[in-house]
Structure formats: C-alpha cells, structure tokens
Design a protein that fits this description.
Layout lengths: L7 H13 L1 H9 L10 E6 L4 E6 L2 E2 L1 H5 L4 H4 L3 E6 L8 E4 H17 L7 E5 L4 H13 L2 E4 L6 H10 L4 E5 L2 E3 L2 E3 L1 H9 L7 E5 L13 E3 H7 L9 E2 L3 E7 L7 E6 H15 L7 E4 L6 H13 L3 E5 L10 H9 L3 E4 L1 H8 L4 H4 L8 E5 L5 H11 L6 E4 L33 E4 L11 E7 L9 E2 L3 H9 L6 E9 L5 E6 L3 E4 L2 E4 H9 L4 E11 L3 E10 L9 H12 L8 E5 L12 H9 L15 H8 L3
Helix pairs in contact: 1-2, 5-6, 5-9, 7-8, 10-11, 13-15
The chain binds adenosine-5'-monophosphate-propyl ester.
Length: 631
C-alpha cells in the first residue's frame, strides 16, 4: 500500500483500493506509524448509530509519533520555526530534539500539577511555541486538550471550559496581534469567576504586562519548566482514547465540543498532509491558520510533525507592519508550501502589488486555501501573483468534524479548476443528495454534500451529547454523514463546494452560528427579537446583517447599534460583530412562528427580485417595510 501519492496512477490505484479493500487500505497506511500494541480490528463503524471505532485494541501515542519517532534521524532538523509578531524580534528555530525536551518538561509539569490521563486541559494561548508544546504535552500524558482560540471573549471561554469541565487553563499574560496588545490573563480571570472546575492556571510570559496572579491557582510557567525533568515516557493510549475537544459553532444553541480520538486522527492527518502538500524532506511548510482552529491542529501541529516536517508558526497578522508580511516571511524562510484562507487572499489582493513584488517567492511549490469557498477572482490573483502560475493550488475542503482534508486537488495530479476542490482523497466517498433525499448519481448536478463511508478521523461525538451528534450529522440522510454544505459536481465529476445550507455563516473563514449571536443581541434590554443573516462581503466572504425589533422606540441619545455590537463582543468575541443593523417593527414569520430567513437573506443581499411564496406568512406586510428600510 503506498503512503505517498505523487502520480496520477498512484492516486487512481490508492483510491480504488481505498473503496474496494477498505480494511487493507487503512491498515497499510497505519503501519507507517509506531504502535505499542497492534489493533484487533481496523474499523468497526455504524453510520446509523454514529458509532466509529478505528484500530480498536491498539495502543499508541501521537506525540511519540510526532517527535520521538524522528529523533534518530532528524534530531537536529528544525521542527518548528516561530516567527514573532514583530519582524525585528529574533525568530526561533526549534529542532526535533529541543522540541522533545520542551514537551517532556511540560508533560512532567502537567502531571506534577495533578493532570491525569483523561483530564481536560483548556489552552488559551496566542500563537507562541508554548501553544504547540502544551498541545503535544497533553497528548503525551493522555490529557484531552481543548484549545480555545485566543480571540474569544471571557463569556465564550467560560462556556467552553465549563462544558468539558477543564481542570486547568494554560494561558499567557497577554498576546501581541499587529500593533495591539491583548490582556489575555484578564480575560481568563474574568472567565474563571464562573468556572468552579478549574483548579490551576499556568501562565506563559509573552507581553510582560502587569497581571494579577491568584494564590494557589496561578503559576508562571517558566520557573516550573526550568525545574521539570526533560525525561518522560509517553503514555500508551488506546487508539480510541479522546485526543482533543475542539468547539465549533452549530446552527442552534451552544457550541459543539467535537471529540477526536487518537489512532484514526493520527493516521488520517499524517497521510493527507503528506499527499495534499506533496511534502518532501527538508521542505519548509507554512500554514497561516491559528492553532485555535482545526486547521492549526491538523496542519500546523500534528500532520506536519507526524511527517517529520518543518512547520512554521506565525504569531502575527497579515497586515502588520505592512501588507507584505506574508510574502516577506515566505522569502525569509524559503517556504515551499503555503496554506492560507480566501479571506486573507482577498484582503491582500486589494493592496498594492508592490507589497508582493518586493519579495522572492520562487521557493514556493504548492499553495493552498481552506475555510470557505474561494471566488474566482481571488483564485486567479493567488495563482498569478503568488504561485506565478507554476504552483498548483490546493483548494482543500474539510471541517472541524472531519479532522482532516476530504476533498482537494492533489498537486500535479488533479486538474486546476478555479474554485473547485475537485477530487475526493482516498477513502472518501462524497455524494450529492437531491431534494428527495436520494443520491444524485449523474454528473453536472448540485445537491447537499454527504459522505457515504466513514474515514479514520471522523469526529466520534459531541462532548457530553451523543444524541446531538447523531441528530446533527446522521439523521437528515440516514446512513450518511451530512456535512451541512451544498456542492456542485461538474460534468467531469469534479466537486465545487458552494457554501453552507444551514444557519451557519462563514465570516472571514470563521464559522458563526446565528442562534448564539441572536441570543446575545436579545440580552440587550431594549431588544424584543432579532434575526441574523449573512450577505456577501468583498473581503470577509460574508458579513453579518442583523434585523432587530425593539420593545420601544429608542431615545435619540442612545446608540443601540453600538451597544448591540458591544454585547456580541463580550458574549462571543469581536469576530461575531454585525456589519449592518436594521431596526424593524417585526420579522417575517410563518404561522407556526418560524422566522422566514430566506426573505431576510434576499433583502440583506439587496436582491428584491423574487421573494418566492410568502403566502404562508402571518405578517406578509412586514416584507415591504423591511425592504424599504434596508441599511
Ligand atoms: O462550509 C465549509 C467551509 O468551512 C466549513 C467548515 O468550517 P470549520 O469547521 O471551521 O473548518 C474550517 C477549516 C477546515 C465547511 O463546512 N469550507 C472549508 N473549506 C472549504 C470550505 N468551503 C469551500 N471550500 C473550501 N475549500
């Protein structure tokens, strides 16, 4: 079974094997890794029950496979390059042997602090080496990491910490983002007033700002790490032991803590990293995501390190100190694979091309995108100006729930079709469902995207709520995994993902559920009701438009729109702020009381052409009022 796919024939053969001889196929890939005990069964899955078990009976450790396994041959090779926010600050190159020592020290420290196998540890850190080290140390001792993006507010942090009753939070004094300094520890302190489960807080020092330290709860990392031993035996984990929880927004209610387990996730992320980025020894790979999202978990930390790669971690933002920063970093480290989001590409494409042309990008071999559909203009700009028309673009489609990339071009194998994710990777069988819930088998069709068979890194459950997991992903089309996305398949069988078909809106690549934002708005004392929809935005892809009904007319001095955005920032985070707010005397509702969002979406988009059937509305007259009041 071949692990590396570098030719069309290898792809065709691997794909065929993966479909026809599933067990042998995945077994062959899994044998590339170190297992302390082999598996009894390769796969034991039931889509109807949402039950997935891979490599049952086997024991392994993903950190051992990410670091220790490479020490013999690669101990002096750089594992992680850390590029700080400020370009004049010295970058750090962490070799595999140094990373090993750092992770062992951290693992020993966590154990000394009372963290045991199975305990949950929240990690709320900026993009500094301590973040990768903490993740790997948790996995080394079998603690379940729950990384929470350090742009979330204290309320969002508290909700996530409590949902999985984390015993510890690892954070920093503050974070640097462009020319801003953010008081991370202050946010943690506020969150922890609501989190009785947290016993200890470890604090990395980054900004050296004055912070409050609570006795017997808060500890600075540095002195403790200095004392910790650099020898540590990786804990033997069952293949199905939870590795991490990562929260993602749902269309309703509270965020979903997606649970990924050890063995299947390891095999799948490593395999897809190697093949989608055609990684060769000594390449320098850079993914610009934050480790707070799944892209960072799978393709900054685990996928690259499992392959013994050199992975770059960037602390800053693309626009600081100028919009040439990404291109400068590519030139500085001679990056070979570059992986970013369409929203960043669109923002940088608006800047003077001089910011690109100042740098030598000839090291690039493959460039990628992820997180949202890329529009043709952005794809062409990326292809021409960054890839110089010689680097294949890998438009990778996947989700927090899928753990790894499912549909993506493979470099020099798949056709380059702007905006198309093209082919499923080996082991993945995407299908499109028609209006009646049946598979559409012909090409040149559109439908709801489902996946027919399980793959090793499919999420196993939602933390504490298997019923919700089953209902969200496995009931709309029984026997299939429903992605929540719509897609098109062209006449040649190539896939293009068109966007969400549920109430999740992707803003600048971040998934935002409408319900939690509406709940936040409704906390404003003057708000009676609200509904959020997305509308197209040049840079963010989508922006948020809020329709808000007030209990009474506001007095002229109150800026309710500002207050609403302030509440959203506090409850969720600045990423969920509304771009436009329109006050209306009511919302279009069906007789059963359901808001007809399709009408609101059209109004927000400025498309008044055809609202479809509005006869089932309880209050059809409201449509005209809302249309006339569009902001
Ligand atoms: O709608 C799809 C979109 O992002 C969603 C998943 O978001 P999240 O769980 O945050 O993971 C993002 C990073 C993997 C999907 O349901 N999406 C992701 N990649 C693409 C995409 N839409 C179109 N094209 C893509 N390449």
């Amino acid at each position: 079974m071949s692990y590396n796919i570098r030719t069309r024939e290898e792809y065709t053969r691997s794909y065929q094997n993966s479909v026809e001889k599933k067990t042998e196929f995945w077994e062959g890939i899994a044998k590339e890794f170190t297992w302390f005990k082999p598996w009894n069964t390769v796969m034991n899955c039931d889509m109807k029950e949402a039950s997935f078990k891979w490599f049952e009976g086997a024991k392994t450790n993903i950190t051992f496979n990410s670091i220790d396994r490479h020490l013999e041959r690669k101990s002096e090779q750089t594992a992680i390059i850390f590029e700080p926010n400020m370009p004049n600050e010295q970058a750090t190159h962490i070799s595999y042997s140094v990373l090993h020592k750092k992770v062992c020290k951290m693992a020993n420290l966590l154990s000394e602090m009372g963290i045991n196998k199975g305990d949950r540890v929240a990690i709320y850190l900026p993009m500094i080496p301590e973040l990768a080290v903490s993740v790997l140390a948790c996995a080394r001792i079998g603690a379940v990491h729950s990384v929470i993006f350090a742009g979330f507010s204290s309320g969002a942090l508290a909700a996530r910490v409590n949902d999985s009753s984390c015993k510890m939070v690892i954070t920093a004094d503050g974070s640097f983002r462009g020319n801003k300094t953010i008081d991370l520890k202050g946010i943690v302190d506020e969150a922890l007033t609501q989190c009785p489960c947290v016993e200890k807080v470890l604090v990395a020092e980054r900004t050296m700002t004055q912070i409050k330290m609570k006795n017997n709860r808060d500890y600075f990392l540095k002195p403790l790490l200095e004392k910790a031993s650099e020898k540590h035996e990786a804990v033997h984990m069952d293949a199905e032991d939870p590795l991490f929880i990562l929260y993602t927004s749902g269309s309703t209610g509270k965020p979903k803590g997606m649970v990924h387990t050890t063995g299947g996730y390891m095999v799948y992320t490593a395999y897809t990293f190697n093949n989608v980025f055609a990684y060769e020894p000594n390449d320098v790979y850079w993914c610009t995501a934050d480790i707070g999202w799944i892209t960072g978990h799978s393709y900054i930390v685990y996928g690259p390190l499992l392959n013994g790669a050199t992975t770059l971690m960037f602390e800053g933002v693309p626009s600081y100190p100028n919009p040439g920063r990404f291109w400068e970093v590519i030139d500085k480290y001679k990056v070979n694979q570059f992986y970013t989001a369409p929203t960043a590409i669109r923002a940088l494409a608006k800047e003077s091309i001089e910011h690109v042309n100042r740098y030598d990008l000839s090291s690039l071999k493959i460039i990628g995108t992820v997180g949202e559909p890329i529009n043709e203009e952005a794809w062409q700009w990326y292809n021409t100006n960054i890839g110089k028309k010689k680097c294949p673009i890998v438009d990778t489609w996947w989700q927090t729930e899928t753990g790894g990339i499912l549909i993506s071009p493979l470099p020099h194998i798949s056709p380059q079709i702007p905006t198309f994710a093209t082919n499923p990777l080996p082991g993945i069988e995407p299908v499109l469902m028609d209006e009646n819930g049946n598979e559409s088998n012909e090409n040149d069709t559109v439908g709801k995207l489902c996946i027919k068979y399980p793959w090793p890194s499919i999420a196993r459950t939602i933390w504490g709520d298997h019923k919700r997991y089953k209902e969200t992903y496995f009931t709309a089309f029984p026997g299939y995994y429903f992605t929540g996305d719509g897609a098109k398949r062209n006449k040649d069988g190539m896939f293009r993902i068109t966007g969400r078909v549920d109430d999740v809106i992707i803003v600048s690549g971040h998934n935002l559920g409408t319900a939690p934002i509406e709940d936040a708005i409704n906390e404003h004392p003057m708000v009676a009701e609200s509904a959020i929809v997305g509308f197209p935005h040049d840079i963010k892809g989508n922006a948020l438009y809020g329709f808000v009904t007030l209990k009474e007319l506001p007095d002229g001095n109150k800026n309710i729109k500002l207050e609403i955005n302030k509440i959203i920032s506090e409850k969720i985070g600045p990423i969920a702020k509304l771009d436009r707010i329109q006050f209306t005397s009511g919302l279009p509702k069906t007789r059963s009381g359901k808001i007809m969002r399709r009408i609101l979406r059209k109004i927000a988009e400025g498309d008044f052409s055809n609202f479809g059937d509005i006869s089932t509305l309880l209050n059809p007259e409201i449509v005209e009022e809302i249309k006339n009041g569009r902001v």
